Amino acid sequence: MIARVVVDVAANQTDRQFDYLIPEVYEETTVPGVRVVVPFGPRKVQGFVVDIVQSSDYELKKMRSIIEVVDVEPPLTDELLSLSWWLKEKTLSFHIAALKVMLPAAMRAKYKKEITINPEFDQRKLPEELKEMFRNPTNKLDWDEIHKQLSEQLRKQLTKAIKNGHLVVESIVGTNETKKKRKVIKRNKPISDLQKLIEDLPKNAEKQKELLTFIINEQAELWPVVELIERANVSRATVQSLVKKELLLEEEMAFNRDPYEGRTFKKSESLSLTEEQQLSLSPIISAMEQHIHRTFLLRGVTGSGKTEVYLQAIEHALSSGKEAIVLVPEISLTPQMVTRFKERFGSLVAVLHSALSKGEKYDEWRKIRNKEVSVVVGARSAIFAPFENIGIIIIDEEHETSYKQEESPRYHARDVAIKRGDYFNCPVILGSATPSLESYARGQKEVYHLLTMDKRVNDVKMPDVNIIDMREELKVGNRSMFSNKLLEAMLERKEKNEQIVLFLNRRGYSTFIMCRDCGYVSQCPHCDISLTYHRTNQSLQCHYCGYGETVPTICPECESDSIRFFGSGTQKVEEEIKKAIPGIEVIRMDVDTTRKKGAHEKLLSQFGSGQGDVLLGTQMIAKGLDFPNITLVGVLAADSMLHLPDFRSSERTFQLLTQVSGRAGRHEKHGEVIIQSYTPDHYSIQDVKEHDYVSFFQKEMHIRKQGGYPPYYYLTLIHISDTDLQKAISVTEKIVQFLKGNLSENTITYGPVASAIPRIKDRYRYQCMVKYKVEPKLITVLQDIIKTYQGEMSRTDLSIIIDTNPYMML
């Protein structure tokens, strides 16, 4: 038997299947989807078995054998294997990248090189410096570790000794997925024997008697050591004494890490549905019952009860013995969503998102693979949950750009969901108050089945939206970041003990610092972008490469002391609120305050329990939050995204403003929204006032048609970057000429042009764009570009990134 293996070497020459003989000992366990260790050239690498065949085009005597099978059960199902082929083609990525993205990070291969002395070589002949390292001839040294520590002279000697065959380098392939182990205590004798033995213990062994009595009374099969010590109120020494006397047995056991350990979720029942909810749910259930794959676009205003429709659709899937995947866009959404799902489905829910540790993710993934759970709630990567009987897939806030992966493979979770839904003949629900234009256009053309919910649950009124022209505020002498109306509204809410959400899509304290005398602005030395001032650690930071420096007190150019801060970030807003309204409690949520694990949930639970008057944050607070006491939402700079060089900037502005407006007045108390803008007449801001998505859609579609943008055209963006500016320009020019010469006349190629941020991390960035309606040769031409430059990319600093469905134009 022969295994066809995709090896873990991401290169154009190796992006194919390699044939390996299956040793007799592994014939039973080698099946498609398992990971194996194989010899590849002089080293060992990990690979994935994608097929088993009886014969090969290669000579059997020249064929090498699999060294080891890593898995007992295949981590990848047959369906995920077939999906990997589709993903490779669609995203123009290497097959190994498509396979690895489907597994948790803990399961990805870890390569080590170990150095040992060649047993046939006399170690006394080694240079003196190396002799010390290999004093023990059986020593195995980690290549990466010692390479970092050695001087250049010693590194040369080491390399020479390896080249001469005096030292041997062996490749070790391992994985990180270690199960969490805990020490547990078991009874080593029957309870009746232990009762007799208590009396035989010496008089001074009171604590040992207490411990045995506790274990007899509790009658549990096993106890984690830490828990036993705490519950029985004894020391570790007492436990060890009884282990030595062989009355108790100590063992190591594997435990699942549970990110929600210690949390209790009260059981919730299905709610009665409104007429609109029922009308939306009926066709979804009908598609499930008929085993029909259909994509539903559920457009429901904020607070219309989309989550309850999801929950009842999932209940129906589970009652039919099927499984469900639910995607949410932000980590900050996950705590509240997880609570809703855990309360309804209890231990049947697994959670997958980036705030979990590698180990927690791996354990949650194992629960899914072992069929211990039926529902997965998570961010983008949860779309690859290894279920084998999916009954429904739901993507909440489907318009969110976080569903698009920005590194290889550049997939969109929506496309993967529809592909998997097609395989399992199950419905896919795309839900949003503000669907992406592409999705809504498909809904209108009946490619997707459009469902609409225009009313909030219990006929709760939509919040009143007021737009404040900040130019008028300047005219009357108000130079603060708060308009008079917003300040009055905040004071009123503080008196009434109601809560406020303040939204500003910019973290930090100030956008940049500038010298008022000469115009000097502190720039990042590695990126073409100004540094952002962070007050908490008195530093200037680059939000692209992480570079930081202390704040200058005098101008480095003209030595003036007229250094001033410009623009406002969330840190500055927090300080200004506290000055304007003494005694107000502010909870700030941005990247800086949510770095620690569990920070999102902690801050939200503080706000939910009334410990904060104001929740201030970036876009992570704009959606999914449902707190009954929020009656005011303030948007401080509605234009911050409107003037970016991106054709989607109006759409993103409308979506973000609509989402954040929807946090107000969701329950009994009426809500108010105050939007501050320097461009108040723009249609993307005016349509938020009327809560009119359809009006915005029609205006934006008209502009997209005139400009020739999606959904009227498809786009492919090619990014070229290099540490050498001239090289980046010349390669981009050659690629543009190649595209123009090989694509059809109706396809338009733009470029070369410098990216909006021309340099990031000392790499110069250029790009070109292909715009087309139908282009049958595109994939072939793009693959030719990759093949042409593959060798150069592996040898030099050149990087070429092709995105066939770009969401980031910068």
Characterize this entry briefly.
The protein is of the alpha/beta class and 810 residues long. 33% of the residues lie in helices and 23% in strands.
Q: Can you give a write-up of this model?
A:
- The chain is an alpha/beta fold and 810 residues long.
- Strand 14 (349-352), helix 13 and strand 15 form a beta-alpha-beta unit.
- Helix 10 (275-289) runs parallel beside helix 11 (306-319).
Keywords:
Arc Repressor Mutant, subunit A, alpha/beta, GIY-YIG endonuclease, six-stranded parallel sheet, seven-stranded parallel sheet, single chain
Q: What is the percent of helical residues?
A: 25-40%
Provide a count of the helices.
24
CATH superfamily of the largest domain: P-loop containing nucleotide triphosphate hydrolases
Q: Output the CATH topology of the largest domain.
A: Rossmann fold
Structural class: alpha/beta
Radius of gyration: 31 Å
The biggest sheet amounts to: 7 strands, parallel
- Let me know the average pLDDT: 87
User: How is the largest sheet built, in terms of strand order?
Assistant: 14-15-13-16-17-12-18
Catalogue the unreliable spans. Answer: none
Report the span from N to C terminus: 50 Å
Q: Give the CATH level 1 class of the largest domain.
A: Alpha Beta
% residues in beta strands: 15-25%
